[in-house]
Amino acid sequence: MRYIPHTEEDVRQMLRTIGAASVESLFAPIPEKLRLGRSLALPKAASEQEVLSELAALAARNAHTESHDWFLGAGTYAHFVPSAVDALASRAEFYTSYTPYQPEISQGTLQTIFEWQTMICGLTGLEVSNASMYDGASATAEAVLMAMRLTRRHKIVGAGLHPHYRDVLRTYAAGPQGVVTEAHREASGRTAPLDRLVDRETACVVLQQPSFLGVVEEVGAAADAAHAVGALLVVVVTEALSLALLREPGKLGADIVCGEAQSFGVPMSFGGPHLGFLATRGSFVRQMPGRVVGQTLDARGRRGFVLTLSTREQHIRRERATSNICTNQGLMLLRATIYLALLGRRGLRELARINLAKAAYLRARVRETRGLALPISAPGFNEVVVGLGVPAADALQRALDDRIVGGLDLSPYASELGPALLVCTTELASRSAIDRLVRALSLAR
Amino acid sequence: MTPPDRNRLRPEMLGNAGRGLAYEEPLLFERSRSGRVGFSLPALDVPPVAPEDELPAEFLRGDCEGLPELSEVDVVRHFTRLSTWNYAVDLGLYPLGSCTMKYNPKLNEAVASLAGFARTHPLQPTALAQGLLQLFHQLEGHLAEISGMDRVSLQPAAGAQGELAGVMMIRAYHEQRGERRTKILVPDSAHGTNPASAGLNGYETVSVPSGADGLLHPEAVAAAMGPSVAALMLTNPSTLGLFEEHIVRIAEIVHAGGGLVYGDGANLNALLGVARPGDLGIDVMHFNLHKTFSTPHGGGGPGAGPVGVKNLLAPYLPVPVVRKLSASEGEGFALDYEFPHSIGRLHGNFGNVGMLVRAFTYIRTLGPDGLRRCAEMAVLNANYLLARLRATYHVPFDRPVMHECVLSDAKLEGTGVTTFDVAKRLIDHGYHPPTVYFPLIVPGALMVEPTESESLEGLDRFAEALIAIAQEAELDPETVRSAPHSTRLSRLDETRAARKPVLRWLPDAEPLDS
């Protein structure tokens, strides 16, 4: 077994030191009748070559962004990842270490987290960020639990939320008895005014920006409605690249900004591991879930970084902790920090403009194509709702015939729009691919 | 003997660390130079649009202030230098108790990066994801066989989320039966996540004391059991590295009182192929794939925390559920959502799929005999270290251990050297310290989990380092108390960090005073 170094002679020598007769005898604390007494019924061991070819065969049965043109977004986004991200994140000093409990030998991880926290604060317009959550959905749920603790209220108003985020929110809110209601959508696609949905029992409004349908929402108006009744505004971002273009939610009144940063250099990987983030106002830091890194000095007065404010966390506070999270998404945070360092101040903005221009081109092509429509008029970022003349399943199949994954069938989520697709255009979508998609959708019967 | 210069490392006292170059590196933002770029974007092949023509001006932000401007070379050097400040499994023994820092096979990384896994989308049609659904189905089956549970959900993203799911299912089970139970029993040696998961579900936690032998005793559980108790959460082997011998009797007591038994799977590595939680009376448990099944810890994650249940809890599993199609439906796998009693969705998608792929690869590579060999060698290694260290360090519960052993600093009393100092001095010897001050029931605990990845000579060097530190505590305690000396930074002031938190870089921040 190539992962285990023991020779038979090593084992004999170790048993002598222990004073045990056999390896089997080391398991004496497990009463005989509780032992399995047979081999596990699992496939027999296989060589590296065999395992790789077996797994490659499984991988080959999944469509991916290299086998198809890709227009499916809806919370998980196909963006280009610079080679340096993979190269640096593959350094074993990063990926085979663990939570930086011992700061003197974990400064690489700790400084990276501090840099991430700084970047997220800049992108969201808020003062503190944690060191990641599992994913955007659980970050949203934890943000809502945090708002419930801060306000001691239990009503939650969701607006424009990804349906999976809404489901996860409901799962998490059941324990502390949160009640989730949902805001209406105007014909334009934007969230209707929230004033009549909130009251003095509302803990928070949870507004997705851009919304699940890709619409840019009015964060300021939502903040006013929430704050007027003493509630908080949680802004959820599933397409983090939009933060490079849209006004910082924190500057428009959001109290917590959270969501998914998979767009920043993290592979889609069938939905995980991704990168949940959460940022908030400085005054709320003691109620923030998750780990956080702070700056300090060493004994010789040199700058260094440590995990801090741990009295909020499960290993200290136990049943009164702000969350039970322990292991988070550290390696994805590293990838995103590398990605943002490469793209930087100008690159991220330029990339966002490319995404915006591709979506504008798609809208223009849809507008001029017979049989296709734009059922939503409000502006968006890189996602477009395309109305169809045939059932969405048929249109998607027609696109697949041309090796195009054409988008998300909206019929389970927004049937009032009629047959429609949510189509995402990132920088990976070439003009010719967009043209072919439009053609395929218009030819569907 | 004259006390040595504390800044000079004496070779004879060192395990396997020497002095090398240590690179300095500022923050990204301090390296930034206006005009540098680390990216190249394709030329726009569609008409350009001005954001202000597409969106109202009040919706748009100004510059992305806060992001640096760096060349690709700058970024590569920055993170490569930072990486050299980290300790890692690939550098050596990482005996962090309860974390199972075993070797992370390279094959697993290669497999997870295949485009057919890494570049797939969670909402792509299931017909175009049959390879992944088959892998899920098989991995669920493997984990069920390894644990003796009936059903497994792969969705939880880490052990703590698996616990949360487990406690939610326990709550749903009691609610379904019309019972309102408000308490969860947790042994005093439990991980902090156990009470935290109970608390997030609105349960009150009741601590159950361990016996004088370190084990959980049926009498203690019986005394705490009652009609308001929903469940007992326990870890077996316990955080003391001891097998809970009375587990079956304890489970009977909890079940007789109408409660359920939750098994924290953090220490499953000791039991692979030897015993199964499901055969010991456990009703629901989580797996830590990043511990037992070798997926890398990533500097703090991602993990993966699948949850396994007995059939009585199957109706409450998170959705979606992967199902193998019946013969009449044709070949393949589907995702089912229609489970009226399900606790719902826990993750935005299917969990940390990349970690599931790695764990599956690991199980396929080892097979049943290899997995059992892991447990055997992990237990051998822990008992060997205990044998080597027993004379030097206090052993609070001196019994045969499973995968880890707990020592304490009690024998160092009088030297002024504590567990904290021993941990920091181990760094000078080239090791990551063990878990310290946990479990809470052992004052000054050093919780050592070598895992099966370590060789005999590696364990000897580590034991000799700990023995040398104990001698040094007698002869030259100040050197131990001010360790580490060989790292780029010396001891960091954690109190200062918490007192006046500085949680991000600001361009105009005042320099730190020293």
CATH top-level class of the domain at 148-362 in chain B: Alpha Beta
Q: From the helix content, strand content and strand pairing of chain B, which structural class follows?
A: alpha/beta
CATH H level, superfamily name of the largest domain in chain A: Type I PLP-dependent aspartate aminotransferase-like (Major domain)
- CATH second-level architecture of the domain at 148-362 in chain B: 3-Layer(aba) Sandwich
Radius of gyration of chain B: 26 Å
Q: Any idea what the shape of chain A is?
A: globular
Give a brief outline of the structure:
Chain A has 445 residues and is of the alpha/beta class.
Question: Could you characterize what this model shows?
Answer:
The complex is a heterodimer of chains A (about 450) and B (about 525). Helices cover about 35% and strands about 15% of the residues of chain A. Chain A is an alpha/beta fold. Chain A folds into two domains: about 70-80 and about 345-445, Aspartate Aminotransferase, domain 1, CATH 3.90.1150; about 85-340, Aspartate Aminotransferase, domain 2 (3-Layer(aba) Sandwich), CATH 3.40.640. In chain A, the strands form four sheets. Chain A has a seven-stranded mixed β-sheet, sandwiched between helices. In chain A, strands 11-14-13 form a three-stranded antiparallel β-sheet, covered by helices on one side. In chain A, a hairpin with a 5-residue loop joins β9 and β10. In chain A, α3 packs antiparallel against α10 (about 330-365) and α5 (about 105-125) packs parallel to α10 (about 330-365). The termini of chain A are far apart. The mean pLDDT of chain A is about 95. Chain B has about 525 residues and is an alpha/beta fold. Chain B has a domain at about 150-360: Type I PLP-dependent aspartate aminotransferase-like (Major domain) (Aspartate Aminotransferase, domain 2). Chain B is built from 15 helices and twelve strands. Chain B has helices at about 30, 50-55, 70-85, 105-110, 115-120, 130-145, 160-175, 195-200, 220-225, 245-255, 355-390, 420-430, 455-475, 475-480, 495-500; strands spanning about 150-155, 185, 205-210, 230-235, 260-265, 285, 305-310, 320-325, 335, 405-410, 435, 445-450. In chain B, strands 1-7-6-5-4-2-3 form a seven-stranded mixed β-sheet, with helices on both faces. Chain B has a three-stranded antiparallel β-sheet with strand order 10-12-11, with helices on one face. In chain B, a hairpin with an 8-residue loop joins β11 and β12 (about 445-450). In chain B, α6 packs parallel to α11 (about 355-390) and α7 packs across α8. Chain B starts with about 25 loop residues before the first helix and ends in a 15-residue tail after the last helix. The interface between A and B is large, with 204 and 204 residues.
